[in-house]
Amino acid sequence: MELAVNFRLAPDVLHANDWHAALCCVYLRSALYSGNEQFRRTRSVLTIHNIGYQGNFDKGNLYWTGLGWDYFNHLCLEFYDRLNFLKGGIMCADMVSTVSPTYAQEILSSDYGFGLDGALRARAAEGRLRGILNGIDTAVWNPATDRNLPATFSADKLQGKAVCRRALQQKFGLPVREDVPVFAVISRLAHQKGLDVFAFGLEELLRECDYQFVVVTSGEKDIEGYLQYLAQKYPQKFGLYLGYAGEPLAHLTEAGADMFLMPSRYEPCGLNQMYSMAYGTLPVVRHTGGLADTVINYDPSTLDRSTGFVLWDLNAASLNNTIRWAADTWRSRPGDFAKMRHNGMTTDFSWNRTASEYEKMYLDAHL
Question: Where are the alpha helices (DSSP H) in 114-220?
Fold first, then answer.
């Protein structure tokens, strides 16, 4: 905001992202800037990517914001006698958005709102809350041009995907086999992601089923240790990489797997399911947030639209049953699997799809 002042800019919209920038929406309405002629027509938009992160501090820190105590109230920054940057942004922004339509509805409930559901319901009642699905950079995530892959491929020329599959199996020290489905995970070991449920139900699948799993992850040390134990016990079926994937490994994993697992407890948008579909890898997801908005559950009666496999209840039995269902479809209904793969690869997940929605929100912020 000071940059705008110094360069004598008069922005139409100030777009803040998450709690880190949420105070800008408060400042715009405060005496610090509301009297500045440069900002007379400026409106603010706040986008929430994950409402679990709020910028919640001791109220004594209000001093450092430059705002007076008249802003420390339930209609602005006060949250259970603490200072909450995100709440201030929610209450003061002209428009509030989040990164998928389903997540915009979920955060209105006490189950997903992390204590701010009341504030969000108030803004929604004013018509000031939107859910706009994220896009992906199709210049980077495009299997037809991806330089990270040993072979490129497209929806109509899939030979290169088989090359990537073999390379992925070799990378993780797994037997190169065409007769087993390959499931992949790239995720943080965080409660939100549901990988604790996956991890502690995994040995049943490794023991009873002829599948292969590749997992790229890091996080909670007890789960890391258990996954290392399983990788040592089942080296023919389970490949594990602990640490940050990096671009080459992430792209190879998306391209080489048959299916990609995302059993999230909540997922504001999620990008990996869109990367997966673009690379002909069918997502196996929990019905929540952006996963619900992007993955259409397999149903033979609506095969023309299906793009993946969806579970509703997050527990080991439900997840394992869904994984078995996906594997059975891969083995027993290859025509259906191929159709879903084509559906996903030909779906437009680019930012072009959502740019017009952002434009409309910017215009509505001025109403």
Answer: 117-125, 159-171, 195-208
